[in-house]
Amino acid sequence: MSIFGNLGGMLGDFIEQHGGAEAMAQNALQQAGGVQGIVGKLQGAGYGEQVQSWLGAGPNQPVTADGIAQAIGHGKLGEMAQHYGVQPDQLSGLLAKVLPGLVDRLSPGGTLEPHLGQNAQAPSSPRDPAS
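C-alpha cells predicted for DUF937 domain-containing protein:
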C-alpha cells in the first residue's frame, strides 16, 4: 500500500472514532465560529458564489481545501487539526468535502436554519420566541 493509502486509512479510522466525517466537521466548525461563521468567512474570502450555490436550489459548487484554509486562517486551522491529531490539509479537505452538503441541508429555504444547525453552533434566530 502506498503512503497515501496509509494516510487515507489512518484518517478514515480517526474519523470513525470521532463519530463520522460530518460529526467531526461539525465539531471543527464549532471551533471556527459555527456554520454561519465559516459561511461568512468564506464569503469574505471570495467564495460567495460557492456559498450561494449551497444556500440556493441546484447543484452545490465545490470549495477547495485551500479555500477552507484561507477562510479559517492557517493558524486557526493548525490549532484545530492539532486538537484532532491530523494534518491541517487533512482537516481542510474534510471540511471542503462535508461543508457544501451540510450548509445545503441547513438552508432548505435559502437561508441557514438556526434550529437545524444547533449542533454546528448556528446562532438562534431573532424571530424565535423567548422561552
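The radius of gyration is 15 Å.
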